[in-house]
Amino acid sequence: MSVLVYTESENGKFKKAAFEAASYAKGIAKQLGIETFAISFNAENANDLGTYGVEKAFNLSNENFSKFNAEAYAEVIAEVAKAQDAKVIVLSQSANAKYLAPLLAVHLEAGYASNVVELPNTENGFVVKRTAFTNKAFNETAITTDAKIIGVSSNAYGLHEAETDIQVEDYQTNVVLSEAGVQVQSVDKNKDKVSIADAEIVISGGRGLKGPENWHLVEDLAETLGAATACSKPVSDMGWRPHSEHVGQTGKPVASNLYIAIGISGAIQHLAGINASKVKVVINNDAEAPFFKAADYGIVGDAFEVIPKLTEKLKEFKANNA
Amino acid sequence: MKILVCISHVPDTTSKINFTDNDTKFDTNGVQFVINPNDEFGLTRAMWFKEKQGASVDVVTVGSKETEPTIRKALAIGADQAIRVDTEPKDGFQVAKELAKVAKDGNYDLIIAGRESIDYNGGMVPGMLAKLIGANFINTCVSLEIEGDKATAIREIDGGKETLTSSLPLVIGGQKGLVEESDLKIPNMRGIMMARKKPLNVVEPVADGLSTEAKKFSKPAPKGDVKLVDAENIDELIDLLHNEAKAI
């Protein structure tokens, strides 16, 4: 019996979400008194997983699997899960993990709980706490199948080091890529910019910025902090910014450590989408903006004056604390 | 081309979320229900295929009789016929199994579902459905073109986009981007009148057993008051973020 974690890598390097998922998997394995195994695809240093308590990593080094393929990846994970008698399979909530998890659930006839924020309660059954209603509520969900799949929300459980002697196996699969399946033709990824999903800090702009020509304020601040940029729904609806930056209930959820909202009034749908962020800062010239009720820190002031000053001061701060 | 659009009946995005029955049930009191926004983008894209390329569009929902106004709205927007699987949706896997039966019976080329419902946010139904019926699957789909029996789609990935091709039958988990918000169809009077005459077939459920069970609900702990910092005193904000919040 084991807990199996899918540890996602990009260009051979593990993502932070992979280590967080591994930490979570280790947490469950300790509760259940079983081992923690990991499956990775073309990872360069699967040994790193030992830091987070993984006892054995199955790393598939195979050119054919260099591009993400949800169908094939799910099949490989299912193959390992069956061979290792995995009781619980843990994934992050990256776009790729969310893509393959339901396919894996059908392979394993497993109950799947997504957006899980805490270790399960295993005293009486297997109950996980997950977010629902787009972060407006939590729901305790019992998974009642033999095999169980858990998607762990980003930044919810955090990294927990548990230095372990890890054994890495060069995994060989019987899974053959289907010619008839979904084929990736091209990937368009901004390599210089951190994505909203992976970001520790997100800087978000709203209608208060008056127009797309003023977005350098957001971008300069984001660059200073190594943050991702985001925007409110009206901003993406008006075409000032791409849809991929829209955060909120019908856009992307944000679970960063720090979320700075500039010129965003704080509609209920927006606040729901960013609620999982740990520290929220609002900068708005309207002291009555609803966002001030949801934020930890706030400045009532003109963004066009406050943001350049803030960026300047943060540059100094970064230089002094480097 | 035969298209099936899966519709989830969800509380409007502005709804206040409360619970009843000792926090085990969602309180529907005073709540307006709508077509799940992620499904609505897909429905509008399906209408586009119908108008520009010729297609039949069926809509399906899994739910009790209370969901009928929502599915009627989809008919008013232009779907040809509706199917309602008469059972309470309790678990994503169960819903996927019900939809799989409908999908198999209808022999559809393209099945569009939202990437997730905005109530339980499970994000599992489209993928499970695809796997259950042996169809291809593309999630977080923001653009979809069909030519003959080949689909070209764009999927959102973390920090970018991916262009994919697929043969049919195909299931997509759709979202905003499939069509623009401003292109969403609002039912007109003629559509509403016609929807009354369109078939709404009620079918019996087939799925046996559940894989998960939603138990108790709770709401996030109330937040403390915001700490206001003077606009002239940016250093104080940086100090708070560094020393108190430890966020930078």
TrEMBL record, chain A:
Gene3D superfamilies: HUPs, TPP-binding domain
InterPro entries: DHS-like_NAD/FAD-binding_dom (IPR029035), ETF_a/b_N (IPR014730), ETF_a/FixB (IPR001308), ETF_asu_C (IPR014731), Rossmann-like_a/b/a_fold (IPR014729)
Residue ranges annotated for the Electron transfer flavoprotein alpha/beta-subunit N-terminal domain, each copy included: 3-184
Keywords: Electron transport, Transport
The keyword Metal-binding belongs to this UniProt entry's keyword annotation: no
Pfam families, per the entry: ETF (PF01012), ETF_alpha (PF00766)
Record carries keyword Transport: yes
Family: Belongs to the ETF alpha-subunit/FixB family.
Name used for this protein in its record: Electron transfer flavoprotein subunit alpha
Lineage: Bacteria, Pseudomonadati, Bacteroidota, Flavobacteriia, Flavobacteriales
Gene, per the UniProt record: etfA
UniProtKB/TrEMBL annotation, chain B:
Protein name per UniProt: Electron transfer flavoprotein subunit beta
Family matches, as Gene3D superfamilies: HUPs
CDD domains, per the entry: ETF_beta
Assigned protein family: Belongs to the ETF beta-subunit/FixA family.
Lipid metabolism keyword on record: no
Keywords: Electron transport, Transport
Residue stretches making up the Electron transfer flavoprotein alpha/beta-subunit N-terminal domain: 23-212
